[in-house]
Write a structure and sequence with these properties.
Blueprint lengths: L13 E2 L5 H4 L32 H15 L3 E5 L2 H4 L9 H16 L3 E7 L5 H5 L7 H17 L5 E6 L1 H6 L1 H4 L9 H26 L4 E5 L5 E3 L4 H23 L5 H9 L10 H7 L5 E4 L4 E4 L19 E2 L3 E4 L5 E2 L5 E2 L1 H15 L3 E5 L16 H20 L3 E4 L21 E3 L11 E3 L1 H11 L6
Parallel strand pairs: 1-14, 2-3, 3-4, 4-5, 6-8, 7-13, 13-14
Antiparallel strand pairs: 8-10, 9-10, 11-12, 15-16
The protein binds 6-O-phosphono-beta-D-glucopyranose (BG6).
6-O-phosphono-beta-D-glucopyranose binds next to loops.
């Protein structure tokens, strides 16, 4: 639909930016913090840094939040490291960890920045992983215990909680991200059991939030992307339906309606990965209701039919690139789209399509909690001329305006990332931030911060409430 006039962003639109604890904080073993699965990785992709120092945000947070204040952010999305709060995942509370996030939240509030807290972003406590991780239902209780601490400690200051970041990517691409990759002959049986257990944990956490923090709102934060059929062949359309049911709706249907969609369920039956559902689980899932939907969007995917009988999929492929499931769908390149330097397709119009699809299906307010461009930024004369990133953001923000005019309720935009950090599996070299952090893959240099061109651009966008993109 071509609109003759686009609607404005809402007056109280949450102009935000995002990070996650293990990718930005560093201080991996300081002040009582326990090890997470990310700290415990024994092998990293060749030539990439570990997460021990990252952007050293733990020691630079006051300076970093001051930068975000200067940029004019209305919100800042960060995650809380579970092992800073409970070092072994379900034992004693670490007071210094609890205090750190009080200081971080207070710093945000002092600049009128609304903290948006992700409760769990890929960093399961390693001690829990050793006991089976999400295969073990006691991890559900551990997550609840951790959630309760977060709600009790921060609930009076935090209006927006996000439960689990990209649970769908943890299941589909766990080996690449460094979360669980499953084991045994049928890894999918194990991974979809973990998935079910995580969904139950999420539902219980949402209920608890509503009980303990009447003034806060909570929602899930998967990675959602519309899926195109490669052609008008009906078989390709079916493949696109399959992939969207498995990749997108499985997670959001469970969070919002508490039901497995029929296509995803028949897929689980087909690959012998139906999870064991305990008595009471479905009731818990049906009763829990998110207040909004948060989702991360990088790009759409395009698939064609695949009728191969063998199932040879593992979870080590890149989250936006490895799209294949024998007999179900097969990813193809979309010739209509440009790509980032890291091969991810760029699809702003697909962003509008995704926003419309999510809103039509769930009818809940939406906040976009990640979107951004990973690039080989170069520091020159104390800045980075990242006009390519500005172009990317302009186009995506334009499509949000189109979607808002279409009637989609979008209340915030939190691009990835607020400051440079360590990417999930491609190191420091793949940069996303509005603020450059002076370090290389293995040379920590001085970790000094520099404002990129996109910093000044986003500041102006926020000042003008997105009126002159
Ligand atoms: C999302 C994650 O999947 O994409 C982030 O929530 C991640 O943690 C971001 O950093 C970009 O991916 P990558 O692999 O480039 O770091």
């Amino acid at each position: 639909m071509r609109h003759s006039k686009l609607k404005d962003f809402p007056k109280d639109f949450l102009w935000s930016a995002s990070t996650s604890a293990y990718q930005v904080e560093g201080a991996w073993n300081e002040d009582g913090k326990g090890m997470s699965v990310q700290d415990a990785k024994t092998s990293l992709p060749e030539g990439t840094s570990d997460f021990k120092v990252a952007s050293d945000h733990y020691h630079h947070f006051e300076e970093d939040i001051a930068f975000l204040g200067e940029m004019g952010l209305k919100a800042y999305r960060f995650s809380i490291s579970w092992t800073r709060i409970i070092p072994d995942g379900d034992g004693k509370i670490n007071t210094k960890g609890v205090q750190f996030y009080h200081k971080l939240i207070d710093a945000c509030l002092s600049y009128n920045i609304e903290p948006i807290v992700t409760m769990y972003h890929f960093d399961l406590p390693f001690e829990l992983e050793k006991k089976g991780g999400w295969n073990n239902r006691t991890t559900i209780d551990a997550f609840l215990k951790f959630s309760k601490i977060l709600f009790e400690q921060y609930g009076s200051k935090v209006k927006y909680f996000l439960t689990i970041n990209e649970q769908n990517m943890m299941i589909l691409h766990g080996a690449a991200i460094g979360t669980s990759k499953g084991s045994g002959i049928n890894i999918w049986k194990e991974l979809y059991q973990q998935n079910h257990n995580m969904l139950v944990a999420q539902a219980k956490a949402m209920e608890l939030c509503h009980k303990l923090c009447p003034n806060s709102k909570i929602g899930p934060a998967p990675n959602i992307a519309s899926i195109y059929p490669a052609s008008s062949k009906p078989e390709d359309y079916l493949a696109a339906q399959n992939f969207t049911a498995i990749r997108n709706w499985l997670y959001l249907d469970m969070a919002v309606f508490g039901r497995y969609n029929s296509t995803a369920w028949s897929y689980l039956e087909e690959i012998d990965a139906v999870p064991k559902i305990e008595e009471g689980d479905m009731e818990i899932l049906r009763n829990a209701k998110p207040d909004f939907i948060a989702f991360n969007y990088y790009n759409t995917a395009t698939v064609k039919a695949n009728n191969d009988a063998k199932k040879v999929q593992d979870s080590s492929g890149d989250q936006q690139l490895a799209v294949f499931e024998a007999g179900v769908f097969e990813g193809v390149q979309n010739p209509n789209l440009e790509k980032t330097e890291f091969g991810w397709e760029i699809d702003p119009v697909g962003f509008r399509i995704t926003l419309r699809e999510v809103y039509d299906r769930y009818n809940l307010p939406i906040i976009v909690t990640e979107n951004g461009l990973g690039a080989f930024d170069k520091l020159e004369d104390g800045t980075v001329h990242d006009d390519y990133r500005i172009e990317y953001y302009k186009k995506h923000l334009h499509e949000i305006k189109e979607a808002i005019t279409d009637g989609v309720k979008v209340f915030g935009y939190s691009p990835w990332s607020a400051i440079d950090l360590v990417s999930t599996h491609q190191g420091v070299t793949k940069r996303y931030g509005f603020i450059y952090v002076n370090r290389d893959e293995f040379d920590l240099k001085d970790l000094k911060r520099y404002k990129k061109d996109s910093f000044y651009w986003y500041k102006k966008v926020i000042e003008e409430n997105g009126n002159n993109l």
